[in-house]
Specification:
By secondary structure, this protein is mainly α. The chain is 59% helix and 11% strand. The chain contains 17 helices and three strands. A three-stranded antiparallel beta sheet has the order 1-2-3. Strand 1 and strand 2 form a beta hairpin. The longest helix has 49 residues. It is flat. The protein starts with 7 loop residues before the first helix and ends in a 5-residue tail after the last helix.
């Protein structure tokens, strides 16, 4: 008959591997752990201080920890103390200037979604909208984003008659500059001298030293020959066929100058849109007027000032030269070829023909004139995709509300990030926006190098995720 299996209690009693510790053995165990921890800390200290490299590494890790904590506190402070503002509207609501409406629309969309995020994040005393009100807000912002896209299409239609002349004027400036060519050649001579070095072989009593003479040669700079060549045929053709027609067209049919002074905020309110006291009035006005000072209306006004090109001293000088009977041909300031020897290797202006200097300046004038339009193009091309993303994200929020689900601050934050990216196409480096998701990610990584990333994560992440409140 097979022996009966011992009970579970008997097996536990008879097995040393499963013996439950007594109070004494527990006490001994924890004492052992204490000794072990102390010993480990000592070993760690000795390991860290053993070499300078380890000391530096440890110090760097500690600094990264404090950097992460410090950035967290600074960003959190700026987040909660940046005032939220909205742009003032004219008495008629929308203005008659599409450029103003786009700029204001991008600014307000960015601010309103930021305000909604702050409310849902519980960072304000204002009450959180109920589901019905929230749905109405979301639908309104979807319509607002769609409206901005439509305004951008209108703005492109308005600009289309002017674009060819703006581009022709810019290209003419480049071609006028290239009608001059410049090349240079450095001249050197060789100088040699002898150097004597002591060379020793062997060691101790057997060491023998002798003098060894070597010839060392170096190239010494003498001067530079500069050569300029001018194509009068190209310059005459560009001025008469491109520069003057484009300039005359923009003077006869200039872009409209937009008066937005009545929309510029001049007074500082006591509190912002969240009811928080405004402590820095100058900073508040800078933020509140940014969409005007750096928006599309200001860029259109720059393009409307075509007289800044026509009345430029270099342009007027060039046009007077071009109106001579033979154009530029035969003018002393535009010689067919020029050779100058000087001591400036990398200079193209020293002793250059006057005409070369004039046409180089005109290229700069036409580049500066076209720059506002290039900045407009960034908004026209890059803002709509971001706005489409806003519409998509808000559509997902609306679906959650329709399904009876709870909408969180994170749901709004995704749409708010996209609206920030849309506004940044208008004002790169804006002082009114918070970092977007990608920017927050890299700020987090850079502020928490090495081991500090783990230690500071819990302290840093709350403000990191709230940082959309930088207004």
């Amino acid at each position: 008959m097979a022996p009966q299996d011992p009970s579970l209690d008997e097996r536990l009693d008879s097995s040393s591997d499963h013996t439950l510790p007594t109070n004494r053995s527990l006490s001994s165990m924890f004492k052992g752990w204490g000794k072990k921890a102390g010993s480990t800390m000592g070993d760690a200290y000795r390991f860290i201080t053993e070499t300078p490299a380890r000391i530096i590494l440890t110090a760097g890790t500690a600094l990264s920890l404090f950097a992460g904590m410090g950035v967290s506190k600074i960003m959190d402070y700026k987040s909660t103390h940046r005032p939220i503002h909205f742009t003032p509207y004219s008495a008629q609501g929308e203005s008659e200037d599409v450029m103003l409406d786009i700029s204001r629309g991008l600014s307000d969309l960015n601010n309103r979604l930021g305000l909604l995020y702050v409310q849902l994040a519980g960072a304000t005393k204002e009450s959180v909208p109920d589901k019905a009100s929230l749905k109405e807000i979301i639908e309104g912002e979807i319509g607002h984003a769609q409206g901005i896209i439509a305004l951008i299409n209108r703005a492109q239609d308005y600009m289309s008659p002017f674009v060819p002349q703006i581009n022709v004027l810019h290209n003419a400036g480049e071609q006028l500059h290239s009608s001059f060519s410049h090349r240079s050649r450095d001249e050197y001579h060789t100088e040699c001298h002898t150097e004597t070095d002591e060379v020793c072989t062997g060691s101790g009593n057997n060491e023998v030293c002798t003098d060894e003479t070597n010839v060392v040669c170096t190239d010494v700079y003498d001067y530079t020959d500069h050569y300029w060549t001018f194509s009068d045929a190209q310059a005459n053709s560009v001025v008469r066929g491109q520069f003057l027609p484009a300039l005359d067209s923009l003077k006869k049919h200039p872009l409209k100058t937009i008066n937005y002074d009545q929309l510029r905020r001049k007074e500082v309110p006591n509190k912002d849109a969240l009811g928080r006291e405004i402590t820095n009035g100058d900073e508040y006005l800078k933020q509140a007027n940014e969409w005007i000072e750096k928006g599309l209306a200001a860029k259109q006004n720059d393009l409307a000032r075509i007289d800044m090109v026509a009345n430029n001293g270099y342009v007027r000088e060039m046009l007077m030269d071009a109106q001579s009977p033979q154009g530029f041909t035969g003018l002393s300031t535009y010689p067919p070829s020029t050779h100058v020897r000087n001591y400036c290797s990398r200079c193209d202006e020293e002793s250059a023909p006057r005409g070369y200097l004039t046409l180089k300046q005109i290229k700069g004038v036409t580049e500066r004139y076209k720059k506002p339009y290039d900045e407009m193009l960034v908004v026209f091309s890059a803002a709509p995709p971001h706005l489409e993303s806003v519409i998509t994200e808000l559509g997902l929020v609306k679906d959650k509300l329709d399904g009876g689900k709870t909408v969180t601050a994170e749901d709004i934050l995704r749409a708010a990030d996209r609206s920030t990216e849309a506004y940044l196409t208008l004002v790169p480096g804006s002082v009114t926006t918070a970092p977007t998701s990608s920017e927050r990610f890299w700020l987090f990584i850079l502020s928490c190098i090495g081991a500090g990333i783990t230690a500071s994560r819990e302290d840093y992440m709350p403000s990191y995720r709230r940082d959309f409140r930088r207004w």
